[in-house]
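The protein record quoted for completeness.
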Amino acid sequence: IGPYVVVGDGAVLGDRVTLDAHVVVGADVVLGDDVRIFPHATLYSGAILGKRVTIHAGARIASDGFGYVFGAG
């Protein structure tokens, strides 16, 4: 676990997980074995990653994405 990493309440980290600097792991996130997360990535609350997953620097997982906004008419 690198410097300035934040791990939220209820998060579960598998074996051999590597969290580089400034990674944020939200509440109730589950990380499988051998996961590698590069610097400045954020995993929002409730995200679930399986085994041997790599998340690259700056990625945002489980955030609100682009969607449709319906207007009147």
